[in-house]
Every structure is written in C-alpha cells, then in structure tokens.
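#onboarding

Welcome to the new folks! Below is a worked example of what a typical request in this channel looks like: someone posts a single protein sequence, and someone else replies with the predicted structure as tokens. Don't worry about understanding the tokens yet, we'll cover that in week two.

Example request:
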Amino acid sequence: MANGGPVEHGYPHLETVRAAITALYKRLSYDTVQTFSTSVAPADVAFSDVDDLHLGAQRVAREIVRHFRLPDARLIVGFRDMTHAANVELAAGPEYFVELNDRFRTHRRDIGAALAHEVTHVYLHRLDLAFPTTAENEILTDTTTTYLGAGWLLLDAFREDGVSSQKLGYLTPEEFGYVLAKRSLLFHEDPSVWFTSPQAYTAYAKGMDRARRDQQQPPLTGAGWAGRRRYAHDRRHGVPPGAPYAFSPDPAGHLRVSFPCPTCHQRIRVPVRGRVRARCGLCRTVLECDT
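Example response:
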C-alpha cells in the first residue's frame, strides 16, 4: 500500500499481467469467465462513516464472496497496525481470517477494495492457480480481481495530488486501467461511471489506449498503414527482436505466422496467405487477419 509515498506509473508488469489473463482463461475456461460479465455494484460495497465498522466490513466481505461464487467461504475481518493494506490466512476454510490495516478505520470507502484483493487470494487458492514467485502471485491476484469484475474498486482507491497519495494493490494505476479496459472491451461495460477518483479515470483512459493497441497489431486487419508496411517488410527480411509476431514453416514447408490473441494473449498460428479469419481456441475471439 502506497500511503503518502511515490506511486509507480507505467507498465513494468505488463508481460506478467498478460500471462495472468492467459492463465485465468486456461484454468477457468471461456464459459466460466463469461459468468463474471457483471461487475461488483457500487451500492453493494458502499460504506458510510455512520455504519458500524465491523458489521459493515463483514457485510462488504460477504458481497465480494458472493461475487466470486464462494458460498461456503466465511471471512472474519479484523483490524490491526500493519505495513500492508491487508492480509488473509489461506487455510483450508471454510473460515478465512482477514486483517485490514488500521488506516481503514477512518478510510472506510476503500475497505471494499482491500477486501476484493484478499477474497481473490481465497478464490485463486481454491482454484489452485498460482505463479512461481510471491511478486508474480500478487500480480496474478490483482489481474484476476480486475478482470473478474471487482478490481475497479482497487483502481478507484488510487488518489494522488501534490502533497499526498494512496494506491492499493501491486499493479500500477495504468496497469489496473489496462486490465479494466480489457474487461470493458470484452463485456462492453463502462466502469468509469463508478469512479470517485479523478486519477482513476485518467489511469483507465491510458489503460484503454494501451488495450486498444493490442487490437491494432499486425497481422490483425486493425493494424494501421505503418503496421502493415512494417509487417510486410519483416515477412520478407526477418522479424526484429521484440516484434509481437514470428514466422515459421509448417511441416509441409508453408509459412505460418504466430501472434498473441488480443483478448487472452494465447499465441495463435495461421497460414501466411493473405486474408485469413481465425478463432482463438482459448477465449473464442474471432480475428480478422491479413497475413
């Protein structure tokens, strides 16, 4: 939790974020991801200063547990002085003990954001979905929280001005915006109407620009003139390091191109023969290509 200190910006974890989206589709399947088409509603996690602290926290926790379809999971929420925003004990369940930073006693509107991250830890624990390192697991957790409809709370908790700052989670604001934009493009949902933080709206707009660029990479037909020209050059003369696509022969010697799906980032291989329509086997996105 960045509290008053500098907030990291940009996309330093982008490759891990993309790997997390791919892993989520592989573990859950397209059909299960589709069941999360509706985000957590602001009214369901609203927390007034006149609400009882502990009863209110338990109520918000139940709503987020319900969103993640964990009906037999019960969160016991407490508060203590700590460095991080929150912590959860990942035991066998069905009860899970969550500790929230004492700061949330007086910053109650962000309790939903902190609990969303911790409930997602429980969700991923039950799915047995994890990345190799602790840092990567936290990126996976933030990405899952956001992609499945509760992470707009984490982005909305980001506030920054000339004298103070607050950010929850391990993604940068722009990375939260990017994942939220990927979700928005998938479900045609506009989460920006729920933001109370102007900085969250700005980060979401930047993330949307980055997410749309995924849909404009060659060999997709959405690539602009410059992208198509660069692709044609690379097809003849070789692909430079860092390019999103790669060429290789199939067993019969015919040239094929591989590139990441703009939705789930699973790599797709199609023949190099002009206009091609491909369907991602993982997320079922239909892609118009000019190979």
